[in-house]
């Protein structure tokens, strides 16, 4: 088995690489920038130059590859649009995989993508799913709805730093998951015959609303959150303004995703049959409370160490006599 991971430097992609290496797989990573991907090489992965937006680079990159896990997506700060990466880039990749006769392809979509055709990223994900299903590929489609890792910058850090936590619309519950657990499903999909040409929603142990997450962070940090509520109408107006500018297209498309969160409709599902198909144990899936507990414990420990060092330096400076001179005989 020779695995190629696309989008390997991202939040999810790097966990897929690590998991695959831990399981002894031969891992290759399609990368645009070798310098930014250097850490993957240090882990033991092979770096292959290529870009899904440049189709001519894909066939050489697929030589000797038998399986592909695709975790690539456009970022809000990218110079290329969601349409460029998540639609045209995926079309380029899927067509290249068919020509290369790749044995297995794992694609990441988003839960309930079909329900939001007016949200660009959701619509593109749904259309890509249909394109894959009509292809000759032996695929598995995985649909998580959110990562624990994304909650750190959204909730944990602002609360620790006394900054505002921005909440929008309804308190919509989302069944977030740890990217390490999602990576387990991706690797397991390559092994399980039951997952061939199938699609699965992925949900964590519990669906969490934004206010519930704030309360968990407050309890674990010992701090009170400064909550600022943003009217949905304001975000819609902001999206309309930034969409006039090319630099704002990705930002506008990401802002459109708040329409999903603002509906109040939970993103969750039963995972019983999914765990059975992938032969994974549900009790091994990390809970949000445990993830946040580990994060805050680590951060609070570092803060205590910093406070200790500062206190130690102050004591040492007080012991020094102001009358001593380094030039004294």
The ordered H/E elements are EHEHEHEHEHEHEHEHEHHHHH
Structural class: alpha/beta
Strand order of the largest sheet: 3-2-1-4-5-6-8
Helix count? 13
Helix content: 40-55%
Gap between N and C termini, in Å?
Answer: 73 Å
What composes the largest sheet? 7 strands, parallel
Shape: globular
Number of beta strands: 9
Our estimate of the beta-strand percent is 5-15%
Instruction: Pick out the low-confidence regions.
Output: 238-252
| Radius of gyration, CA atoms, in whole angstroms | 23 Å
| Overall pLDDT | 88
Gist of the model:
The protein has 13 helices and nine strands. It is α/β, with parallel strands linked by helices.
Q: Can you offer a commentary on this structure?
A:
It is built from 13 helices and 9 strands. The protein has helices at residues 13-22, 38-43, 58-61, 82-99, 120-133, 149-161, 179-191, 210-221, 232-242, 249-256, 258-261, 272-278, 288-319; strands at 2-6, 26-31, 46-49, 67-70, 104-108, 139-143, 164-168, 198-201, 226-230. Strands 3-2-1-4-5-6-8 form a 7-stranded parallel sheet, sandwiched between helices. A two-stranded parallel ribbon has the order 7-9. Helix 1 packs across helix 7 (179-191). It is globular, with a radius of gyration of 23 Å. The model is unreliable at 238-252 (pLDDT under 50). It is 46% helix and 13% strand. By secondary structure, the chain is an alpha/beta fold. Helix 4 (82-99) links the parallel strand 4 and strand 5 (104-108).
